[in-house]
Amino acid sequence: MAVRMSVEQPLWRALLAYRLLTAAYAVALYVHAYGHLRHPLPGGVYMALLAGWTLATIGRVRNAERCTRAFLAADLTVAVGGILLTRYVDTMERVESGAFTLPSIWTAGAVLAFAVKGGWRWAAAASSLVAAADLVERGSPSRDTLHNVILVWVASIAIGYVVEVARASERTLARALQIEAATRERERLARDIHDGVLQVLAMVQRRGNQAGGEAAELGRLAGEQEAALRTLISAAPPAPRPGAPGDGGPAAPDGPQDLRTLLAPHASPLVTLSAPGTPVLLAPHAAAELAAAVGAALDNVHQHAGERAHAWILVEDEPEAVLVTVRDDGPGIAEGRIVAAADEGRLGVAQSIRGRLRDLGGTAELLSVPGQGTEVELRLPRGPGEYRAPGAAESGAALTDADGRGRT
C-alpha cells in the first residue's frame, strides 16, 4: 500500500516528544519548589491534571486530522489556566522575581500545536492569549516577561509560516508528479497506437488509393480516421486518476530477456539482422521497449523508403550499454521533415523511437542524408548490476553488416 507523502509529519512527531519532555520538566520544577509555594496543594492538583492531560492526548498530536479545533482550545485552556493559577499558588515575591509558572515551557507546546495545525494566523492568536495571561500573572511587565512573550510569539508565527509554505510545496509537487505520470501514460498509449492502429490505417489508405474505385473511398475514410486519431493522441494529457495502478500495460515476464530473440522476427530477405553470438540480456521491460523502438524504425523504412527497401539491424553488446543500429538504403529524410511530422501529430520518431529510449534512460540518434538512406542509433546504458551473459564482455566477436563493414 502506498504511503502518503507528508512534509509536516516530522513536525507532529517532534511536537509529541516536546510535550512529553516539557510536562516532565514542569513536574520536576514543581517538586523542587514545593517548600517555597504559598498554596502547594492546588498546584499539585494542577500538575497532576497537566501530566494526565499530556499522556491522555498523545494520540491527538500524531497528525492534523486528530488534532481538532476542540482539542486545541482545551489544550490552550490548560496552559492559560495554569499560568493564571500560578499567581495564587506561588508567593508574590517569587512571582515578581520571575519564578516559573506552573506549566512552565509546556505552554509553548500548546501554541506550537496551533502553528502546525493552522499556520501562522492560528499561531499568532494562540500566542497572543498566552502573552496576555503572562502579563496578568506578573502584574506588571518586566524585561524578562516581555522577552519570553516576544520569543514565543515570533517562534510560533515563524513555524506556522514554514508549515504553510511546506504544505503549498507538497501540493505543487504532488500535482507535478500527477502531470508527469499522465504525460508518460499518454506517450505510452501514443506509441502503442502508432505501432498498431495508425500503421494499419495508413496502409489501408495507401492501398485504397492505389486500387481505386470503392477501395479509394475506403482509403479516404481510413485517412480521415488516421488524421483524427493522430490529433487525439497529440492533445493535452488527460487528468490523472487518483490511485491509478501502474501504466496499465501487460505484465512483463520474470527474469532477463534476450534481445536477439525479440529482434529475430524482423529478419527477412529485406532485413538483415547482425547480433553477437552470446545472449544480449536486458530487463524484460527494457528489452521489450527497445525491440518495439526497432520495430517502429523498420515501419518508417517500409513506409517512407518503399516496401522493397533494404534495412540492416546491428546489435552491439558493449560493457556499459547496448547499442542497436537500424540502417536503410532509402532516399533519406528531407531536412526539417521530422520536426514538421511531430507538429502534424505523426509521432513515429518523436514517441515510438525517441520517447521509448528516453523513458528507459537511453538516447536515440537519427542520421539521414538525402539520397543516402537513414541510420537510427539506439543506445541503452546498462545500470549497476545489469544482466550480462557469461563471456559477453570478453567475446570481442566482430560483426559484419550487409555492406561488409566490420564493427567490433
From TrEMBL:
<dbReference type="Pfam" id="PF02518">
    <property type="entry name" value="HATPase_c"/>
</dbReference>
<keyword id="KW-1133">Transmembrane helix</keyword>
<protein>
    <submittedName>
        <fullName>Histidine kinase</fullName>
    </submittedName>
</protein>
<feature type="transmembrane region" description="Helical">
    <location>
        <begin position="145"/>
        <end position="163"/>
    </location>
</feature>
<keyword id="KW-0902">Two-component regulatory system</keyword>
<feature type="region of interest" description="Disordered">
    <location>
        <begin position="372"/>
        <end position="408"/>
    </location>
</feature>
<dbReference type="GO" id="GO:0000155">
    <property type="term" value="F:phosphorelay sensor kinase activity"/>
</dbReference>
<keyword id="KW-0812">Transmembrane</keyword>
<keyword id="KW-0472">Membrane</keyword>
<dbReference type="Pfam" id="PF07730">
    <property type="entry name" value="HisKA_3"/>
</dbReference>
<feature type="region of interest" description="Disordered">
    <location>
        <begin position="235"/>
        <end position="256"/>
    </location>
</feature>
<feature type="transmembrane region" description="Helical">
    <location>
        <begin position="12"/>
        <end position="33"/>
    </location>
</feature>
<feature type="domain" description="DUF5931">
    <location>
        <begin position="2"/>
        <end position="174"/>
    </location>
</feature>
<keyword id="KW-0418">Kinase</keyword>
<dbReference type="InterPro" id="IPR050482">
    <property type="entry name" value="Sensor_HK_TwoCompSys"/>
</dbReference>
<keyword id="KW-0808">Transferase</keyword>
<dbReference type="GO" id="GO:0046983">
    <property type="term" value="F:protein dimerization activity"/>
</dbReference>
<feature type="domain" description="Signal transduction histidine kinase subgroup 3 dimerisation and phosphoacceptor">
    <location>
        <begin position="185"/>
        <end position="215"/>
    </location>
</feature>
<dbReference type="InterPro" id="IPR045975">
    <property type="entry name" value="DUF5931"/>
</dbReference>
<dbReference type="InterPro" id="IPR036890">
    <property type="entry name" value="HATPase_C_sf"/>
</dbReference>
<feature type="domain" description="Histidine kinase/HSP90-like ATPase">
    <location>
        <begin position="290"/>
        <end position="382"/>
    </location>
</feature>
<dbReference type="Pfam" id="PF19354">
    <property type="entry name" value="DUF5931"/>
</dbReference>
<feature type="transmembrane region" description="Helical">
    <location>
        <begin position="70"/>
        <end position="89"/>
    </location>
</feature>
<dbReference type="InterPro" id="IPR003594">
    <property type="entry name" value="HATPase_dom"/>
</dbReference>
<dbReference type="InterPro" id="IPR011712">
    <property type="entry name" value="Sig_transdc_His_kin_sub3_dim/P"/>
</dbReference>
<dbReference type="GO" id="GO:0016020">
    <property type="term" value="C:membrane"/>
</dbReference>
<feature type="transmembrane region" description="Helical">
    <location>
        <begin position="39"/>
        <end position="58"/>
    </location>
</feature>
